[in-house]
Amino acid sequence: MKGPLIENFYRLFDVIKPQRICEIGTHDGKSAGQMCEYLLQMGLTVDYTGYDLFEEANDETHKIGHKWHKDTGTDNHMSWCQVGLSVLLTNSFTGGLMYYADDDSGKNKTLVKRKVGDLCVHDSSEWHMVEPHEGKRTVLLIFI
Fold first, then answer.
1. Contact 78, 71 (CB under 8 A)
2. With 0-12 CB in 10 A as exposed, 13-18 as middle and 19+ as buried, what is 106?
3. Alpha carbon distance 13, 143 (integer Å)
4. 77-89 pLDDT, tens per residue?
5. Pick from 112, 34, 118: which is nearest to 78 by CA?
6. Which of the residues 44, 67, 83, 101 has the least number of beta carbons within 10 Å of its own beta carbon?
7. Which of 137, 141, 113, 126 is nearest to 62 (CA)?
8. pLDDT in tens, the chain (144 residues)
9. What is the residue extent of each domain of the chain?
């Protein structure tokens, strides 16, 4: 979020000093990160919950999977994230397996055996990845 729009949030935050933010439609988490950082600089404790359907993502993008990463994001753009959650919503695909490991090289790689409806929860310091897949793989992602 840029310019006057984020400044309006900052002015509102100066008055109401929120302790909880719930964002629906997180996209990449940058706006929420800016908001949380501002509140933390004010000395407040902030609880953040974000939801997104990732409708702008297309099957081609998701089919390539996700390489090893932590939920704080590339360049720490989601530094506010403390917990990542995912729920597998479909089973009409092949591949797309999820793994945890000790580092970004996949040391001690461990397969997450899951079926539709299973919830995976990890703190943001956990290295994980998802293999490429074929078919329709839909996952609900929640970052707190």
1. yes
2. middle
3. 22
4. 677 788 888 888 8
5. 34
6. 67
7. 137
8. 667 788 888 998 999 898 888 887 777 777 888 888 898 999 988 888 877 765 555 444 468 888 898 888 766 667 778 888 888 888 888 999 999 999 999 999 999 998 998 888 888 889 999 999 998 888 888 888
9. 1-52, 56-144
Run of H or E residues at 38: helix 30-41
Query: pTM above 0.85?
Result: no
Residues 140, 23, 51: CA angle, nearest 5 degrees: 0
Give the closest residue to 65 by CA, choosing from 93, 87, 96: 96
- Looking up tokens 């989601």 gives 78
Structure tokens at 104: 């970004």
